[in-house]
Each structure stands twice: as structure tokens, then as C-alpha cells.
Amino acid sequence: MKLPYSGGCACGEIRYNISDEPIFMNDCQCRDCQRMSGTGHGSYLTFPSRNNVKLNGEAAYFDMVGDSGNTKAGHFCPKCGSPVYLTFAAMPELFTVHAASLDEPSRYKPQVVTYVMRGYDWDHLDPSLPKFDKMPPA
Ligand SMILES: [Zn+2]
Ligand SMILES: [Zn+2]
């Protein structure tokens, strides 16, 4: 068993501790991720089970209908505004955290880039990563 993944927001109000390994790590260039991150893409680690996530603090959230047509909720700290995690209406078991919210962001190892069709020339990502116009086929 590896170390849990811990992290939270900038002010410390929201904290998580995840005793699991990520099943998916991606840079996403969709419009929602651009708006949430304030730059060209978001970077995420997705964990398979809410049962292995311990959360402290009360996050605020807003719902978005993504490019895929699925509803997702962006959870952020009501005090400092940091985006911390995402949940998905159609896949309620999944728990996705923003890479920079980790206490050790170097543990993020992107595997793919998603929604490249929405990306901008000024947002350069690792050219060795597999790229998908939308999401990779399941
Ligand atoms: Zn905060
Ligand atoms: Zn996205």
C-alpha cells in the first residue's frame, strides 16, 4: 500500500485524504477546464471510489454540462476559491482532484491529453503524451 494522496485548497479549509491509487490522470483542454483553471487546461487525478476518500470542510460547488453532455460538479473552497475536486452525475463513484491541490503535486503523472480540439496554440503540453480530440474511447 502506497502513501495516501492528500491535499486541499489554498487556505486549508478543505482537505482530502485518499487511500487509493488514481485510475486516470489527464490534462484536459475543454472549455470548462480552461475556465476553472484560468488557463489553457486543467490537470486531474481520478480515483475509483468515494468510499476511500476522507473529506474535511464544506466545499461549495456548481454544476456544468460538459462537452460530452454529462453533468459534472466543480467543488471549490468558499473561502479562498481554489478549485479542489470534481464529481460526475453519471459516475457517482469517481472522485477527481485538481493536480495542484495535492500536497505533493509531483505525484501527478499525466497519461493523456483530452479535448485537444478545444486547445489553444499558446497552451503547450508534453508532446510525448497521447492526445484525444475528446475523451479516449472507454
Ligand atoms: Zn480554501
Ligand atoms: Zn475538461
Shape: globular
Strand order of the largest sheet: 6-7-8-9-4-3-10
Kindly provide the radius of gyration, computed on alpha-carbon positions and rounded to a whole number of angstroms: 14 Å
Given the structure, what is the number of helices?
1
Structural class of the secondary structure composition? mainly beta
Task: From the structure above, extract its key features.
138 residues; mainly beta; Metal Binding Protein, Guanine Nucleotide Exchange Factor, Chain A; 5% helix; binds zinc ion
Describe the structure.
The chain has one helix and ten strands, in the order βββαβββββββ. It is mainly beta and 138 residues long. The strands form two sheets. It has a seven-stranded mixed sheet with strand order 6-7-8-9-4-3-10. Strands 1-2-5 form a three-stranded antiparallel sheet, with no helix packed on it. The two termini are 27 Å apart. Bound molecules: zinc ion (2 copies). One zinc ion is lined by residues 9-11, 13-14, 77, 79-80, 82. It holds the Pfam family GFA. This is Aldehyde-activating protein.
Short description:
The chain has 138 residues and is mainly beta. It has one helix spanning 31-37, and strands spanning 5-8, 15-18, 24-28, 42-47, 53-56, 60-65, 71-76, 83-88, 91-98, 112-114. A seven-stranded mixed sheet has the order 6-7-8-9-4-3-10.
Describe the secondary structure blueprint for this structure.
Layout (H helix, E strand, L loop, with lengths): L4 E4 L6 E4 L5 E5 L2 H7 L4 E6 L5 E4 L3 E6 L5 E6 L6 E6 L2 E8 L13 E3 L24
Parallel strand pairs: 3-10
Antiparallel strand pairs: 1-2, 2-5, 3-4, 4-9, 6-7, 7-8, 8-9
Bound molecules: zinc ion (ZN) (2 copies).
